[in-house]
């Protein structure tokens, strides 16, 4: 029963399809004048918070320890990253370390293909532990996020829906759907048979500079990826 509470291929795929369908409906409501366009401002703001939490927090901090930050930001990134229905820090670090180690091989944890738009799946071999994962598993809070991530997402949606259906739709479901979509695009086109590549046209979807994928594979422990990178600007404000 407990596996149902974790973020996994089945519930994250369900969340992806359901949230994107709901988001189409949300844009329809705004286009037809049934809801104010100001609700889309909330969608954009929350979407950017998710972008920063995953790119700066789960990716650059938790996975690569490219910089140090206060405990407040550590938990902020962990909570937002998990509530985005993307992954808990432990799961993200596990999958991403596998990706770097086995990039563009049969063991690569990242799927290259358009099926990622429908099925959010990572191929992560069992038993692959790194120092970062061992360190995280010593924190009861991080283990809690790993075990109950999906349950926390459903509870968050339920509470927001009880407070305001519009807030649940535009402030939670739609931002998650947009992040699912941008992640699917990135997952699909950031690698070819020749390896990782930089795609500047992705900047409008990934303003945190995740589009500089080849650069990141060459310099995985750098927190500043150069060029236009909102993530690095934010890191300058919080790093210690």
From TrEMBL:
Topology in the lipid bilayer: Multi-pass membrane protein
Transmembrane stretches, start-end: 12-31, 38-60, 72-93, 145-163, 169-189
Gene Ontology molecular function, alphabetical: oxidoreductase activity, acting on paired donors, with oxidation of a pair of donors resulting in the reduction of molecular oxygen to two molecules of water
Top-level taxon: Bacteria
Broad class of where this protein is predominantly found: membrane
Position of the signal peptide: none
Keyword hit for Lipid biosynthesis: yes
A GO CC annotation given for this chain: membrane
Keywords: Fatty acid biosynthesis, Fatty acid metabolism, Lipid biosynthesis, Lipid metabolism, Membrane, Oxidoreductase, Transmembrane, Transmembrane helix
An annotated GO BP: fatty acid biosynthetic process
Compartments it resides in: Membrane
Family stated for the protein in its record: Belongs to the fatty acid desaturase type 2 family.
Protein name (record): Fatty acid desaturase
Lineage: Bacteria, Bacillati, Cyanobacteriota, Cyanophyceae, Oscillatoriophycideae
């Amino acid at each position: 029963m407990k596996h149902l509470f974790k973020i996994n291929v089945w519930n994250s795929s369900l969340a992806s399809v359901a949230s994107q369908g709901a988001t189409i409906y949300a844009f329809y409501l705004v286009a037809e004048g049934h809801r104010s366009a100001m609700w889309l401002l909330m969608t954009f703001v929350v979407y950017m918070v998710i972008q920063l939490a995953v790119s700066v927090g789960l990716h650059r901090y938790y996975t690569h320890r490219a910089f140090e930050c206060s405990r407040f930001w550590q938990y902020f990134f962990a909570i937002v990253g998990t509530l985005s229905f993307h992954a808990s820090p432990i799961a993200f670090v596990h999958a991403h370390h596998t990706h770097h180690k086995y990039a563009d091989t049969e063991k690569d944890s990242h799927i290259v293909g358009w099926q990622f738009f429908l099925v959010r799946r990572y191929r992560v071999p069992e038993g692959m532990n790194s120092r970062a994962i061992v360190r995280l598993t010593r924190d009861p809070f991080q283990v809690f996020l790993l075990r109950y991530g999906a349950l926390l997402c459903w509870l968050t949606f339920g509470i927001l829906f009880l407070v305001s259906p519009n807030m649940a739709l535009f402030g939670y479901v739609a931002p998650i759907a947009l992040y699912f979509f941008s992640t699917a695009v990135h997952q699909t086109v950031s690698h070819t048979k020749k390896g990782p590549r930089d795609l500047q046209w992705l900047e409008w979807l990934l303003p945190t500079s995740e589009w500089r994928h080849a650069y990141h594979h060459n310099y995985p422990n750098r927190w500043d990826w150069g060029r236009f990178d909102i993530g690095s600007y934010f890191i300058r404000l919080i790093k210690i």
